[in-house]
Predict the 3D structure of the following.
Amino acid sequence: MQKINLKNLSLQEIEGLVESLGEKPYRARQIYEWVFQKDVSDIGEMTNLSLNLREQLNKPAYISRLSIANKRTSSDGTSKYLFLLEDGNSIESVLIPDEDRLTLCISTQVGCKLGCAFCLTGKSGFVRNLSQSEIIEQILSVQREIRPPLSSLLTKEGNGVVGDITNIVLMGMGEPLDNYENIIKSIKTMISPNGLKIPARRITLSTSGLIPEIKKLAKENLKINLAISLNASDNETRDKIMPVNKKYPIEELLEALKEYPLPPNRRITFEYVIIKGLNDSIEDAKRLSNILKNIKCKINLIPFNSFEGSDYETPDYKNVEEFQNFLISRHYTAIIRKSKGADICAACGQLRSKRLEG
Ligand code: SAH
Ligand code: SF4
């Protein structure tokens, strides 16, 4: 019989498991806390459970961990982690230190189906969805690595305390809303007071604009931030670089976003990858400012990061600044996001999955 990975379960699912073992439902909360808050890897360590329950649980269940296959740190302080999955696939996460934040960018799928022309992940195709355990383990294992257990700090064997991860962005490999069930379950575990206890306002989900899932997400009322990869101001250009636009064109996407219930003082973020000669003119900026008129939003301008074999070029910085200044003159908040970690291929759109052999 295949064992159940406790890290793949929701609190309700652990309740079901506990009840099937003839135990009281409140035990489920304790187990959930051991797995996600205290981050134990061995059921034997769950010391507030009876020895008998621990033994009973050990038979059908286990707790998985991901191994960090490689870590590279950029000259700007960004670190890229490569994780080896149980089936031989691999994924990457990027840790980005900023003044008062430590943001982890996590992957949601191995590859991506959406095939955006400017994105290496998209160009590499789709392999499979990530499970809750694989999504949450990216956070737990990086946290474990940057904040070693107290015992190793006391003996000075640790590799330095950097503090805790403060923000999570679902902007690594994959389209989060194309892995809807596992993503919602994982976000609930991230924000649960019995789970990772990450405030919802510190989590951002980025999507290429899957309208039915955006509508479903609105009803979940999770209070996380939403970022939309718009990348163009007219359908003709967006069709060229984002095939998803043929199914969900700009005007329908923006209509759906107007109905998205934002918590007070919150805005939708639009990401706009600026590609030389494609979407970097003042005409583009003008159109963008017109179509976003009635939406509470801010705009992140991301100069295109190139990669081997890419068909596009990085824009001139002068154009990017003019683009930004135009939007500011129209009273938008527009920020140029210079991707960090480009020297280690950790920048937006540079992540790819590899099959690691052996
Ligand atoms: N699939 C989701 C989240 C992952 S992509 C989405 O598309 O939103 C995260 C961000 O990286 C997106 O905003 C995307 O537009 C951007 N991106 C992809 N490739 C890029 C590249 N080569 N240079 C700069 N940004 C890129
Ligand atoms: Fe997928 Fe996002 Fe890359 Fe598009 S930009 S291919 S949706 S990961």
User: Anything to note?
Assistant: Residues 152-161 have pLDDT under 50 and may be disordered.
